[in-house]
């Protein structure tokens, strides 16, 4: 994928702020700090377009980035941050569930997991939601550069088992540090948006 243009569009708090041009959307969910924003930056080859939040758990918006007038990346707030209040957690759940249920342009959900660790309860719950709403999903196991190559297979297997992953869902091993998996993930994305 040749990136000609990428722009930050909006931090949307309410559905009426979501873009209305009906371009396909690729959304990213995952734990706080797992590397969602870094993944977007790597995909579009920009160092710092997707903001890495200094206050984890505070941001409750969906951040929209448009690439080549072709697709949006939609960066979800990270979940699982301990200091988040119950009210915030509920708001997060509501916003994400509404988005997954109603957002017509959503073509693919990336579930971003740290390849080093067993998926959390929240990861499993998120994956079950995606299955429940029949959202096409790609599991992205990121930070691959943090474990030796010899362990990649074992860790991918551990993640698939913990999530009870649907064998039809693609799994991409990724690193925002080295660019591993970038081309493969672009293939999955262009497939999903019929490009
Ligand atoms: P929230 O927005 O708080 O939910 O976090 P996030 O999921 O957007 O994570 P972010 O991209 O901000 O990355 C968190 C930290 O992990 C940063 O210090 C990144 O530099 C680091 N990081 C992200 N991806 C990778 C990776 O593939 N390899 C390595 N080594 N570090 C990574
Ligand atoms: Mg982020």
Describe this structure in words.
The protein has about 200 residues and is an alpha/beta fold. The protein has one domain (about 5-190): 3-Layer(aba) Sandwich (Rossmann fold). Helix content is about 30%, strand content about 20%. It has a seven-stranded mixed beta sheet, with helices on both faces. β3 (about 60-65) and β4 form a beta hairpin. The chain binds guanosine-5'-triphosphate (GTP) and magnesium ion. GO terms for molecular function: GTP binding; metal ion binding. Belongs to the TRAFAC class TrmE-Era-EngA-EngB-Septin-like GTPase superfamily. EngB GTPase family. One of its GO terms (cellular component) is cytosol. Keywords: Cell cycle, Cell division, GTP-binding, Magnesium, Metal-binding, Nucleotide-binding, Septation.
Strand-pairing-aware structural class:
alpha/beta
Q: What is the tally of beta strands?
A: 7
Proportion of beta-strand residues: 15-25%
- Determine the N-to-C terminus distance: 11 Å
How would a textbook summarize the main sheet? 7 strands, mixed
The run of helices and strands is EEHEEHEHEHEH
Query: Mind telling me the CATH class?
Result: Alpha Beta
CATH superfamily: P-loop containing nucleotide triphosphate hydrolases
- Please give the CATH architecture: 3-Layer(aba) Sandwich
CATH T-level topology: Rossmann fold
List ligands, each type once: guanosine-5'-triphosphate, magnesium ion
- Report Rg: 16 Å
Low-confidence stretches at least 5 residues in length (pLDDT < 50)?
A: none
Strands in their spatial order, largest beta sheet? 1-3-4-2-5-6-7
Shape: globular
Task: Return the average pLDDT rounded to an integer.
Answer: 92
Give the count of structural domains. 1
Family: Belongs to the TRAFAC class TrmE-Era-EngA-EngB-Septin-like GTPase superfamily. EngB GTPase family.
Function: Necessary for normal cell division and for the maintenance of normal septation.
Keywords: Cell cycle, Cell division, GTP-binding, Magnesium, Metal-binding, Nucleotide-binding, Septation
Protein name: Probable GTP-binding protein EngB
């Amino acid at each position: 994928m040749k990136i000609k243009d990428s722009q930050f569009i909006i931090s949307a708090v309410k559905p009426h702020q979501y873009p209305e041009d009906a371009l396909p959307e690729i959304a990213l969910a995952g734990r706080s700090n797992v590397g969602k924003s870094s993944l977007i930056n790597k995909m579009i080859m920009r160092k710092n377009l997707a903001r890495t939040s200094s206050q984890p758990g505070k941001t409750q918006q969906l951040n929209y980035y448009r690439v080549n007038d072709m697709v949006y990346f939609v960066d979800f707030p990270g979940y699982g941050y301990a200091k988040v209040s119950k009210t915030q957690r509920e708001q997060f759940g509501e916003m994400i569930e509404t988005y997954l249920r109603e957002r017509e342009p959503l073509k693919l959900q990336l579930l971003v997991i740290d390849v080093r660790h067993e998926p959390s309860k929240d990861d499993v719950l998120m994956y079950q939601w995606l299955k429940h709403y029949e959202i096409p999903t790609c599991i992205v196991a990121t930070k691959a550069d943090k474990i030796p190559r010899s362990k990649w297979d074992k860790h991918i297997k551990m993640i698939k088992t913990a999530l009870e992953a649907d064998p039809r869902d693609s799994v991409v091993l990724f690193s925002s540090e080295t660019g591993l998996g970038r081309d493969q993930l672009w293939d999955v994305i262009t497939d999903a948006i019929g490009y």
